[in-house]
Amino acid sequence: MAPVCLYLSHKVLIILGAFGLLITYLIVWIGQSLLAMQIMQITYGFGASTRLVFSSYIFLLVSEEEYQTMTSLTTTISLLSFMLSSELGQLLALQEAPYDIFFVISLIALGICCSMTFILPKDHSLSSLSSLTNSWDQSKQGWTSVLKETWHGRSLQIFSLWWAVAFAGISLVQNYGTNLFEAVDPKSKLNGHILAASELAASLGSYCAIYIEKFASKSCLSIYMVGSALMGILCVCMGFSSKIWVAYCLYVIICGIYQTLACLVSVRCGHLISNGQYILLFSINSFAGLLVETLLQAAIEISGLSIFSQFISFSGFFFLATAICVGLCFVDSSRTSYLVLETEPEHLISDST
Description:
α1 runs antiparallel to α2 (34-61), α1 (10-30) runs antiparallel to α4 (99-117) and α9 (222-240) packs antiparallel against α10. The protein is an all-alpha fold. The chain has two domains: 1-119; 145-353, Up-down Bundle (Growth Hormone, Chain: A), CATH 1.20.1250. The protein starts with 9 loop residues before the first helix and ends with a helix. It has helices spanning 10-30, 34-61, 67-94, 99-117, 128-141, 143-150, 154-184, 191-219, 222-240, 244-272, 278-303, 307-352.
């Protein structure tokens, strides 16, 4: 999506993405051929990718001081909508409602969404002509230089690395969460409600990020270090859990912690970026996380590990994210000590003179 944003505005891509999701559900409902399913995968991928466009679009609309507030509020509302849809789907499933009802409700919601995209404010991006000129200049100097400029600064690189690793970890936990629940208690019928509760916890975490942003800025990497370690420990506990309610509670807590840190780190990256290429930063970070997740998921399927062993292995992502923060703090402290030792003789000389 990042290269396309150079030619089209963020608002146009959001409109196209919303209609892409609408077309996806229409194809799923009425499509009956293999070609229709293949087209559906393309339209769904395009629609889903516009979520990153919307995240960067928010940064273009508001001032830097409002990044955290707007990011947290939009994320909170989005997660609450997921929770409501999950509970509604659970209720309709218990009533044995036909699938047509599900599709009608989804299409009505997407129709409203598509209509609302037209009244979104215009982003503060460049005009089409200047965007084309910009993209031509960037193509001449090479995308490599653009990427280097975007990820300039070690702090931004570390936060981006944490983003990718933690994203891969939480994605695996969420993908295999219901498998763990079924392994612990196959008779439980509360899995859908727990998934909704995890969305509620994540929305609360996103909202709380507004109030802990200043603390997170002062603590530097400490909050990410502690949060990553805690998620890793909880993930290990899930791998050893034998009671369904323990697994449920741990899953909800992990989702809440991650979403809080995710809102903080995305805004922190937005503050640190120097060239305003938010969509490029968000896209590459998310792609890196998906790539790592896919590789490990393939390795797990080949290895044939039990679901409990899988969750213990998932904790490695969170512990790796913790190690990244610890390593950076250690390097920073070592460099600071070295600089103090290097500059101390100069102060002594100046004092003696």
